[in-house]
Specification:
The complex is a heterodimer. Chain A has 11 helices and 8 strands. Chain A has a 4-stranded antiparallel β-sheet with strand order 1-2-3-8. Chain A has a two-stranded antiparallel sheet with strand order 4-5. In chain A, strands 6-7 form a two-stranded antiparallel sheet. By secondary structure, chain A is of the alpha+beta class. Among the domains of chain A are: about 200 residues, Orthogonal Bundle (MetI-like fold); about 70 residues, no CATH class. Chain B is α/β, with parallel strands linked by helices. Chain B has 14 helices and 13 strands. In chain B, strands 1, 4, 5, 6, 7 and 13 form a 6-stranded mixed β-sheet that branches. Chain B has a 5-stranded mixed β-sheet with strand order 10-9-11-8-12, with helices on both faces. A two-stranded antiparallel ribbon of chain B has the order 2-3. In chain B, a hairpin with a 5-residue loop joins strand 2 and strand 3. The radius of gyration of chain B is 22 Å and the shape is globular. Chain B starts with a helix and ends in a 29-residue tail after the last helix. In chain B, about 50% of the residues are buried. Chains A and B meet through helix 1 and helix 10 of A and helix 1, helix 4, helix 5, helix 6 and strand 10 of B.
């Protein structure tokens, strides 16, 4: 008997290539990719051809031309009506980010306070938090923006009869006119002093932890750090000959002028966005805390920790693992909801770039495309950061 | 089977991305039985719904004129209220057939948007309105003021130019809807309200105390307002253009909605040509020969629509001024129908 006639074990069964499931699936996937590529290409080609046929200008050349219109809010970037449309984009993006970052900051603080308050043993506090959450999250956000803008801020006195807030400046229908710090020559040293103080505080914190682990002795890190962070820049302030001055708003023909101006559109949006999102964050925080086993609290008490310490050292760190993923999506919601700014004339990305710039140039495809990609990028970056933070805080199993 | 799926997908892709309307707007309009006209969201005198919900105004009358020319019935028109921001996209995409929305004719809009301006039915200029108690007498005293306006308008550009040229500081607050601008100005968010001067007179009527506000004398720009159509459809372009010209010609020749019928018996050949008793001008436009007669008898001549909507006897009380006939010192001039 010829051994060679026997089929060896690792040889593939003889089937037609076309009937090979692996090969077939690859063929179909390749076909799908080709089809998708063709679809996308034909969409772009179709749009370009039709735009040209309709006599509508296209391309990105408009970005370098002067915008010709003014904007009333740009906290960091330079802008005049002779700036380019590209600058309009940057100012819009800046205004969106400023709104999102400050909104997230306040929403987080209010959300955590309300979430913890809902679990309070004090009946009044827990009921207040309960009603806050129920009312805030059940009224549409756009309506809340209108309530703050038209119902509250628009009813302030006109600029001729501003409310005098003393050292805080003036408040009227045109917004808040607060004193502004003017950083003169030599004030850079104060900035460095602040950075150094923060760095030193971190080092002390690490050293104190180590020492506590080794010897059980505690070191007042908080007070030392606070003293350093506040004290060092103040010391430098006097050494450098008081380089920082304040500019108070003065009264002009049309109400207060100068100082730091906060437009009412911005105030209304911050109030609405942070109070609305805080209601959702409060629920997330409550859920996170409830997810931590009751035994953890009892164990903490048994070790002699006070309720505040229990919350801070034991419950919150464990709850964070449950809190962070849904918290991320709330942050993303807030960033995207900031585009509602268009309703009350706050110059965010949607209003000035996808709105005014689009209308003045008529290049809808390019501008809407850029705006969508920008929001996508903002959301992805936020999401990446939160995922990284989540991974860092997740349970390390040994 | 698989082939049909692929081709179906292809067709879907083509139709999804098909852009713009077909070229022959007149045929489309005749087929659907009405003219779709883009107007403002409420600007008294130009396009504004009255208490019964019927649209009135000088811009509205132009659309009614087009409907009268096409169908012999001025009521066969539907209106789409549009914000300044939405208006061009609505026309480009074919959502409306004609845009008659106090729109300024500029080089950029005429050349880069794929649109054509079919004449000027109102010559305007941009002005400023302020509260009396500010004591401002001239626009040059406005340094440091907050200025409210509409976003996506030529107004927004003119005001930037004006304040820059005169080295004045200002803060612009730009809203999307005209009503929001009025509300913000009324609440004191702004010291100044700027738009076309006709618009200032119109919007002043909506303020809490119209008498407390003054329109400043300066006019800082040229704002020729007129109807707009899509580029590349000359037949429709001609029809809208000549609808306006017919109304101006009628005023010049003394034809009104009241006397149009008896004027048909006139011996004046110019009047005969307008009213269609002589010549074949309607056929050349692709409509009935009595097109201009229908416009005049159902909507009126230019003077009638001006006086009815914005003239001295209306709350706006605007004088003819630059909008008078060329023969009376104004700018309204129409090529002859011959």
């Amino acid at each position: 008997m010829a051994v060679t006639d026997m089929p060896s074990g690792d040889e593939k069964p003889k089937v037609k290539l076309l009937n090979d499931p692996k090969f077939r699936s690859m063929i179909f996937q390749a076909l799908l990719v080709v089809l998708l590529a063709w679809l996308v290409w034909s969409m772009i080609d179709n749009a370009a051809t039709n735009l040209q046929k309709a006599g509508i200008a296209s391309g990105f050349g408009f970005l370098s031309t002067a915008s010709g219109f003014g904007l009333n809010f740009s906290p960091f970037l330079e802008y005049t009506s002779s700036s380019s449309f590209m600058q309009v984009y940057w100012v819009g993006l800046q205004n969106t980010l400023v709104l999102a970052v400050i909104g997230i900051f306040f929403a987080t603080i209010i959300g955590f306070i309300m979430g913890i308050a809902r679990l309070s043993n004090n009946w009044v506090i827990s009921k207040i938090a309960y009603w806050y959450v129920e009312v805030m999250r059940n009224i549409p956000l756009l309506l809340q923006i209108f309530i703050w803008y038209k119902g509250v801020l628009a009813t302030l006195p006109t600029s001729k009869n501003s409310i005098d807030l003393g050292a805080l400046g003036f408040l009227n229908t045109k917004g808040l006119f607060a004193p502004q710090f003017i950083f003169g020559e030599g004030s850079g040293v104060m900035g460095w002093a602040l950075l150094i103080a923060i760095a030193v505080t971190f080092v002390i914190n690490g050293w104190a932890k180590k020492r506590q682990m080794a010897t059980g002795e505690r070191f007042p890190v908080f007070w030392t750090g606070l003293g350093l962070i506040i004290g060092l820049p103040i010391l430098m302030y006097f050494i450098m000959g008081q380089p920082v001055t304040t500019e108070y708003p003065t009264s002009g023909n049309f109400g207060p002028r100068g100082g730091m101006r906060v437009i009412p559109e911005f105030i209304a949006l911050i109030l609405a966005l942070s109070l609305y999102t805080a209601a959702f964050i409060a629920e997330i925080v409550r859920a996170g805390i409830l997810a931590v086993n009751r035994g953890q609290t009892e164990a903490s008490y048994a070790l002699g920790l006070r309720p505040g310490q229990t919350l801070r050292l034991n419950i919150i760190p464990q709850a964070m693992r449950v809190i962070i993923p849904p918290l991320t999506s709330q942050y993303l919601n807030l960033a995207k909801n900031s585009s509602l700014a268009v309703a009350i004339a706050y110059p965010d990305l949607t209003a000035v770039f996808a709105g005014t710039a689009l209308n003045q140039t008529g290049q809808a495809v390019e501008i809407i495309g850029m705006t969508m990609l920008t929001y996508l990028a903002i959301s992805l970056v936020t999401s990446l950061f939160m995922n990284w933070y989540n991974a860092k805080n997740s349970l390390v199993e040994r | 089977m698989k082939k049909t799926i692929v081709s179906a997908l292809g067709v879907a892709a083509m139709s999804v991305t098909a852009f713009g309307a077909s070229a022959a707007t007149l045929d489309d309009v005749k087929a659907k039985g009405f003219v779709q006209c883009g107007v403002s969201q409420g600007l008294p005198g130009f396009s504004n719904p009255d208490s019964a919900g019927n649209w009135t105004g000088i811009d509205v009358d132009l659309c009614k004129g087009v409907a009268a020319a096409v169908f012999g019935d001025a009521t066969k028109v539907k209106f789409t209220p549009l914000s300044a921001k939405e208006r061009f996209t609505a026309l480009q995409s074919g959502e409306i057939d004609v845009l008659s929305r106090n729109t300024t004719w500029t080089a950029t809009r005429d050349t880069t948007l794929g649109l054509n301006f079919a004449g000027v039915n109102y010559y305007d200029g941009q002005g400023f309105m302020v509260r009396n108690d500010l004591g401002v007498k001239s626009a040059l005293e406005l340094s440091g003021a907050s200025v409210c306006t509409n976003t996506g308008t030529t107004t927004e550009l003119n005001v930037a130019d004006y304040f820059r040229a005169n080295k004045l500081e200002y803060e612009i607050v730009a809203f999307e809807k005209a009503d929001e601008v009025v509300a913000a100005y009324d609440a004191g968010r702004c010291d100044v309200y700027t738009t076309d001067q006709s618009g200032l007179y119109a919007q002043r009527l909506k303020l809490t105390n119209p008498a407390d506000h003054t329109v400043l004398p300066e006019i800082i720009s040229k704002e020729p307002l007129g109807p707009v159509v899509r580029q590349g459809d000359d037949q429709w372009f001609n029809l809208v253009k000549w609808t306006h010209f017919a109304m101006v010609n009628a005023e010049e020749l003394g034809i009104t909605s009241a006397n149009a019928e008896e004027m048909k018996n006139s011996d004046n050949p110019a009047i005969k040509r307008v009213l269609g008793t002589e010549g074949e001008f309607g056929a050349a436009l692709g409509v009935g020969n009595d097109w201009a007669f229908n416009i005049i008898s159902q909507v009126g001549n230019y003077a009638e629509t001006f006086n009815r909507n914005v003239g001295p006897d209306t709350p706006l009380a605007i004088a003819r001024g630059t909008n008078d006939l060329w023969s009376k010192g104004g700018l309204q001039y129409a090529p002859p129908i011959r």
